[in-house]
Specification:
Number of domains: 2
Distance between the termini: 26 Å
Number of strands: 5
């Protein structure tokens, strides 16, 4: 069975403010970088590719259209054509960003809204707000890595990013799959905000009807949340770091740096292998 932890989300206004703030910083960092500058955290991309990814058909333009049209799926989305130069790409980002923020501000967060998330209870405007805040945050980091000009992450937003990444990106369970909890417990302790995420390790199995593939592999699910001062002698392993360290580690934006990993070598090795899988 899939665990159903209590959700720990930030206020919707916080997500909207983050979308605006992080996109503004993203644009500021990239707009004057030389063409062809590589983005080290996105192999094969240069800065124009990154600008178009956030502003074009992959992210903000796409999600503004989803919120505006509330389709049952993305099949009718009118994919925009990428402009030929930096000026056009930046202008497209500006239009898409303004449209996204306007659509989100005028929508009820509780309204239904299509999403790729495997948990259909997340198919809401609220989830889109949250996801877009973290999309902008992580790509702001990508922009700063390209420029060699990193700035800190907001600890509360980064803590929420850790939770989202573990619950949705790694812990999402499709309807055709099953998670078998094997009793292994891991604490993810966020030192600067005092938040603890409690993980269960186990086995994911299922047959994907879309690809006709059978799956049987180690997996992780979020069981719940606690405070880092709570007793920790019941855990097989602990992951310890600041919100920024852990968020960037989970999103593979920290080079080879790891947070502190303590406990059973076998459990730590299993967790590393699970979290080493790519996410987009």
């Amino acid at each position: 069975m899939k665990p159903h932890p209590e959700r720990h989300w930030l206020p919707m206004d916080t997500y909207l403010a983050a979308i605006e703030r992080e996109t503004r910083r993203f644009r500021e960092v990239l707009v004057d970088l030389p063409e062809g500058t590589p983005v080290p955290s996105c192999p094969g991309w240069d800065v124009d590719d990154l600008l178009w990814h956030l502003g074009g058909g992959d992210v903000q333009h796409f999600w503004a259209w989803i919120v505006a049209n509330r389709p049952e799926g993305p099949e009718d989305y009118p994919q925009p054509e990428r402009p030929a130069d930096r000026h056009g790409i930046v202008a497209a980002l500006d239009r898409a960003h303004d449209d996204l923020v306007r659509r989100l501000r005028n929508a009820d967060p509780a309204d239904g809204c299509w999403s790729w998330a495997s948990d259909t209870s997340l198919h809401t405007v609220a989830f889109t707000m949250r996801r877009q805040a973290h999309e902008a945050l992580i790509h702001r980091v990508d922009a700063e890595l390209a420029a060699g000009a990193r700035t800190p992450l907001d600890p509360q937003l980064a803590t929420d990013g850790v939770v989202e990444c573990l619950e949705v990106m790694y812990g999402g369970l499709p309807s055709w799959g099953r998670f078998a909890d094997d009793g292994t417990r891991v604490a993810v302790d966020i030192t600067d905000t005092g938040h603890r995420v409690v993980l269960a390790l186990g086995r994911f199995t299922g047959h994907d009807p879309a690809t006709q593939e059978d799956h049987d592999l180690d997996d992780v699910q979020v069981l719940g949340h606690d405070h880092t001062s709570a007793r920790d002698d019941s855990f097989h392993a602990r992951v310890i770091g600041t919100a920024e360290e852990l968020d960037l580690w989970l999103w593979h934006r920290n080079g080879r740096a790891e947070p502190e990993l303590d406990g059973s070598e076998e459990v730590v090795g299993r967790l590393r292998a699970i979290l080493a899988q790519p996410i987009s």
